[in-house]
UniProtKB/TrEMBL annotation:
<keyword id="KW-0546">Nucleotide metabolism</keyword>
<comment type="similarity">
    <text>Belongs to the Maf family. YhdE subfamily.</text>
</comment>
<comment type="function">
    <text>Nucleoside triphosphate pyrophosphatase that hydrolyzes dTTP and UTP. May have a dual role in cell division arrest and in preventing the incorporation of modified nucleotides into cellular nucleic acids.</text>
</comment>
<keyword id="KW-0963">Cytoplasm</keyword>
<feature type="site" description="Important for substrate specificity">
    <location>
        <position position="19"/>
    </location>
</feature>
<dbReference type="InterPro" id="IPR003697">
    <property type="entry name" value="Maf-like"/>
</dbReference>
<keyword id="KW-0378">Hydrolase</keyword>
<dbReference type="InterPro" id="IPR029001">
    <property type="entry name" value="ITPase-like_fam"/>
</dbReference>
<feature type="site" description="Important for substrate specificity">
    <location>
        <position position="82"/>
    </location>
</feature>
<feature type="site" description="Important for substrate specificity">
    <location>
        <position position="172"/>
    </location>
</feature>
<protein>
    <recommendedName>
        <fullName>dTTP/UTP pyrophosphatase</fullName>
        <ecNumber>3.6.1.9</ecNumber>
    </recommendedName>
</protein>
<dbReference type="Pfam" id="PF02545">
    <property type="entry name" value="Maf"/>
</dbReference>
<feature type="active site" description="Proton acceptor">
    <location>
        <position position="81"/>
    </location>
</feature>
Length: 212
């Protein structure tokens, strides 16, 4: 059932992340969800921030292009990408449990950085791809993680929680017991910095008609 009426503005969420959907729903948006299948591979010499910005943009543009000229658009497409960085290395979602254990052992007792880039994309029906509008923004937060024992890591990985999360932890659930302090946006760490996301939509003139 399509719960969005023809007269209401639409947001398409180009993300398979249940956290991002829940955050948008909590704000009163009722996004249509389409997951992109963009490959997440850093390019040689690409900074962590440039990498997240590129992925956020590519995810949104892929979905906007796929939906162009379908009844799902026009509408603003929101996409995002979250990474953890430590000593210049990018930590993404773990490949398997051993990878998750290794990431958590590395993050134990550190101050590290989380970067979430998001992108708003607009593609009007019948318009060529060059007429597409997109704006990508990166938001950063520092996270201080307490020292983790091997037992902490083993039990946490056995819970399954780390497996779909950048850096192998989720600050919003069991992983909260590992985080002593953060500086910056909490929602950047969770994967969608809602203050900036809504601010950008407002700047783009796309907020009219939404509940905010
Ligand atoms: C650090 C951290 C990450 N995460 C999540 C947010 C993202 O969903 C995920 C990082 O992976 P992403 O590649 O950013 O997103 P995704 O694969 O979940 O979804 P999509 O690419 O379709 O948009 O890690 C948390 O939920 N909590 C945390 O504390």
């Amino acid at each position: 059932m399509d719960i969005i009426t023809k007269s209401s503005p639409r947001v398409v969420l180009a993300s398979g992340s249940p956290r991002r959907l829940e955050l948008m729903q909590r704000l009163g948006f009722e996004p249509l969800v389409y997951k992109s299948d963009i490959e997440e591979i850093p390019r040689a010499g690409e900074s962590p921030e440039a990498y997240t910005l590129r992925l956020a943009r590519e995810k949104g543009e892929a979905v906007a292009d796929a939906l162009a000229d379908t009844p799902e658009l026009p509408g603003w497409v929101l996409s995002a990408d979250t990474i953890v960085t430590l000593d210049g290395d990018v930590l993404e979602k773990p490949g398997d449990e051993a990878d998750a254990c290794a990431m958590l052992a590395r993050l134990s007792g550190t101050r590290h950085e989380v970067i979430t880039a998001y992108c708003w994309t607009w593609r009007a029906p019948g318009q060529p791809v060059e007429a597409r509008i997109s704006k990508a923004v990166a938001v950063r937060a520092d996270v201080w993680m307490r020292e983790l024992s091997e037992e902490n890591i083993r039990r946490y990985v056995a819970s399954g929680e780390p497996m779909d999360k950048a850096g192998s932890y989720g600050i919003q659930d069991l992983g909260s017991t590992f985080v002593r302090r953060i500086e910056g946006s909490y929602f950047c760490v969770v994967g969608l910095p809602v203050c900036e996301v809504v601010e950008t939509l407002e700047e783009l003139g796309g907020l009219k008609g939404f509940p905010l």
